[in-house]
């Protein structure tokens, strides 16, 4: 497996189905804002195949993404729910849309995770 592969969302499920056929295992998914305006989100999916870890990155512009549950069963559910909580990505096929990390009563525009910038200064 290559270390990281950037793919288009339209190829995502097919690529993951091919990985599953090659006995790759889903490990974890993470997300981060891909641009300064926080309009694009990068989701990085990590897989293990024969002891080697590889990653697939998809850039999401409209906050819509297919769920990996159809390919890897329940394994991706918690990761997708957490990404949904923090970034409001709508995973098509994710059965449980209930918040995973944040309480249901919390509705705010305040960032729900650390979004500060760290700059180097001379001491």
Distance between the ends: 44 Å
Series of H and E elements: EHEEEEHHE
Uncertain regions spanning at least 5 consecutive residues: none
Shape: globular
Q: Using the coordinates above, name the CATH class.
A: Alpha Beta
Q: Bin the helical content.
A: 10-25%
CATH topology: Beta Polymerase, domain 2
CATH H-tier superfamily: NADH:ubiquinone oxidoreductase Nqo5 subunit
Main sheet strand line-up: 1-4-3-2
Describe the fold and architecture.
The chain is of the alpha/beta class. The chain has a single domain, classed as Beta Polymerase, domain 2 (2-Layer Sandwich), CATH 3.30.460.80. The chain contains 3 helices and 6 strands, in the order E-H-E-E-E-E-H-H-E. It has a 4-stranded mixed sheet with strand order 1-4-3-2. A two-stranded parallel sheet has the order 5-6. The radius of gyration is 16 Å and the shape is globular. 18% of the residues are buried. The mean pLDDT is 84.
Describe, in short, the structure shown.
The protein is of the alpha/beta class and 123 residues long. The protein has helices spanning 12-21, 69-72, 77-87, and strands spanning 4-7, 25-33, 41-49, 52-60, 64-66, 90-92.
